Amino acid sequence: MTPSQPQGVERAAIQSAEFLPNGPAAAAILAAGVGSALLGILAVAADASKPVARLLTFYLPTGPLSGVTSVAILLWLVTWFILAKHWRTRTVAIGTVNATAFLLLALGILLTFPPFADLLQGK
Amino acid sequence: MEISLRALITLIHGVLFGAFFVMATYGLVVELYRSVYAEQPIKLTPQGYSRERLYLICMVALGWAAVLTGAYVIYPWYRAVPPAGVTDLALYPRFLLKSSAVTAGWHDLGMEWKEHVAWIAPIAVTMVAYVLTRYRHSIREHPQVRTAILVFAVVALGAAGVAGFFGAMLNKYAPVNGGPAIHLRGKRQ
Questions:
Q1: How many domains does chain B contain in total?
Q2: How many CA atoms lie within 13 Å of A3's alpha carbon, on the beta-carbon side?
Q3: What pTM was estimated for this model as a whole?
Q4: Which residues sit opposite B4 in a β-bridge?
Q5: What is this model's ipTM?
Q6: Domain range for residue B125?
């Protein structure tokens, strides 16, 4: 056995011990996309509908923004928790997860952009 | 030399929390982008990883501090409704901006966008910080995960930039003022 072999074996063992499935990362990435999209969807809903705006007014001085953000954050964390629990030890199709998360993120940004939200509402 | 309490808190929100968050996120984006082209994995000492984790925690905390102070402390002052008969709208920034067609856009586009898009930034960086911490030894083995967190970090930087830009412009045209005056130096009026 050459002196370099134990190092190589040791390194491989360390790498193997450190290898993590991509499930936990995929759960966090997809949940962040879901959270962003929910933020946009709720923002448009509160802007379009007075009853929804009233329903989402959790803190009067801040208005509907308090409910829009609180609900979006709560659902983001719940989504993250559920996905993380299911994908904790799994290797998932990260390409599909990324594409979905990017679409949701783009949707969230678009829906928070007032000219686009107004266009959707026919204003 | 005096500053009103509301102006001071707005300053803390924008400069301390907001601007430092933008700088921290910019540093994160640069480091993530650099790691894509690194030939060798960047190994840190345990103390180095500990400092890196502290950096990420501070960045996430700054992001949440910025949006929470913005939404629950400053925004209520911004959107306060003037009592009937009040003609001086200096203490009612939203109504001051909307009172003129020249400045209304700063509210209709600036504040309406800023108040929502800003929240995407802490959501994104919380995820990025979690992934970087969890996969600190193996992120190179997951190039698609690294791509995803880089995209989210860039979007967080953009969202924080939009919020920061409009925050500065809104405060220029309709500054949040009021509350007790805080005397800093010189003679009191």
A1: 1
A2: 0
A3: 0.91
A4: B181
A5: 0.92
A6: 2-80+91-175
